[in-house]
Amino acid sequence: MEPIKLVDNIHLLCVNDRRTHLFENYWPLPNGVAYNSYLIVDEKTALVDTVEFGHSFGYLEHIENLLNGKTLDYLIINHMEPDHSGAIKMIIDRYPKCIIVGNRKTFPLIEGFFGVKTEQLVVEDGALLNLGKHKLSFHMIPMVHWPETMVTFDATSQILFSGDAFGSFGTLDGGVFDHEINLDFYESEFRRYYSNIVGKYGMQVQKALAKLGGLPIKILASTHGPIWRSNLSYILEKYDMWSKYQAEEKGVIIVYGSMYGNTERMAESIARELSVQGVKNIKIFDASKTHSSYIISDIWKYSGLIIGSCAYNGGIFTPVGNLINQLHEIGLKNRHVALFGSSSWGGGGLRVLEKWAETMSFEPVGPKPEARCAPKANDIQECKEIARAMAKVILA
Ligand code: FEO
Q: Are residues 207 and 74 in the same domain?
């Protein structure tokens, strides 16, 4: 899109990517994704992060026009993941005297990914860089969500260039600033981005929030999604809650893996009884159909989780197995969890779920029914017991 002025001398250079199907070749992008880069034109000039190579149409031209005859003095790399660093080589080829600004963990990655060797400015935590009117400082926020991640704060405009932090999936379709967009529309994409991309690093996000809380931030400028300048507390409060693994709402996510519909029938029974017991937020997901990123996003939102699986090759059904592995990997906690399953000629689904749950920080709820082939009356009865026990703790 055309450059957008944030304040005097600072422009957003956003590339909306509506072509890529999968972010990091894994996460679906039905609403696309925006890559945000920022250009500061002062006595000295600086570009903060770049965009994904291959989606950089017009990017260099915009930089050239905004520089208006000046050269690019600094390229600040807050985050080295290639969706932001992909255009580094192109920038250095165009501005060979440009100094790359990063920290000690940034430069080995730049050389490793792109083979770029150019003049470096290695900054430590709290280091300053004076561009003239704009005075930048650099703050390390390691593992949010890579080891080299840092943020850049401009004391003059009070903009925090925050890297992936406070980012979102979804392109910027006209609206760029938070007050210009319907946040309800973006909310699920904010959460899906956080829970799947950053969710593993809750402790590091908490440290970053504490550290950045000391800065007088007026504008939050992430590398993905909207620019926050009216309602910063909205996203800051979400980040605080998400990184503490706290549920936002009372409700129950039921996920099942079912080959022939029997485990699904158990899920239906549980859901109906939950509703009878007064739980209003209930969502059922078929793990074979819905990409795990959407399921994980909703699991992040609600306080209860019920997972069921049929048996497969003496173990768990693969889509459910993949989901619980991801939940283990990202360290989900603070949820009320119940389990169920079905066996046929051999069990295994429920057994794997039980072992998994023992490794997680969950509050176990209710019985763990395992139907032999198709669920019988006693299995359905136990499913209803799960629902009643879950409703009791959820609505307490
Ligand atoms: Fe948007 Fe971690 O890259």
A: yes
pTM, 2 dp = 0.95
Q: State the closest ligand 1 atom to the C-alpha of 149, by its place in the atom list counted from 1.
A: 2
Three-class SS of residue 291?
coil
Span from the CA of 148 to the centroid of ligand 1 (angstroms): 12
Pair 232, 273 in one domain: no
Mean pLDDT of the chain, nearest integer: 96
Does 195 lie in the same domain as 105?
A: yes
Evaluate whether 386 touches 276 at the Cβ level (below 8 Å).
no
The count of domains in the chain is: 2
Residues 230 and 256 in one domain: no
| Ligand 1 centre distance from Cα of residue 145 (Å) | 8
The angle formed by the CA atoms of residues 342, 346 and 351, to the nearest 5 degrees, is: 60
Strands of the sheet with 33-41, listed across from one edge? 4-7, 10-17, 33-41, 45-48, 74-76, 99-102, 120-122
Nearest-CA residue for atom 2 of ligand 1: 81
Residues 225 and 306 in one domain: no
Q: What's the CA gap between 374 and 342, in Å, rounded?
A: 8
On whether both 142 and 268 belong to a single domain, the answer is no
Q: Is the pLDDT of residue 44 over 90?
A: yes
CATH number where 159 lies: 3.60.15.10
Q: Is the pLDDT of residue 286 over 80?
A: yes
Contact 154, 136 (CB under 8 A): yes
Q: What's the pLDDT tens digit per position in 167-219?
A: 999 999 999 999 999 998 899 999 999 999 999 999 999 999 999 999 999 99
Q: What is the pLDDT of residue 330?
A: 96
Q: Are 119 and 100 in contact (CB under 8 A)?
A: yes
Please state the atom number of ligand 1 nearest to the C-alpha of residue 163: 1
What is the extent of the structural domain holding 104? 4-243
- From the CA of 223, give the closest atom in ligand 1: 1
| 198 vs 300: CA distance, rounded Å | 12
Q: Return d(Cα 194, Cα 31) in angstroms, integer.
A: 16
Query: Among candidates 276, 330, 285, 329, which has minimal Cα distance to 305?
Result: 285
Whether residue 164 has its Cβ less than 6 Å from ligand 1? yes
In the block, residue with structure tokens 């051999």: 346
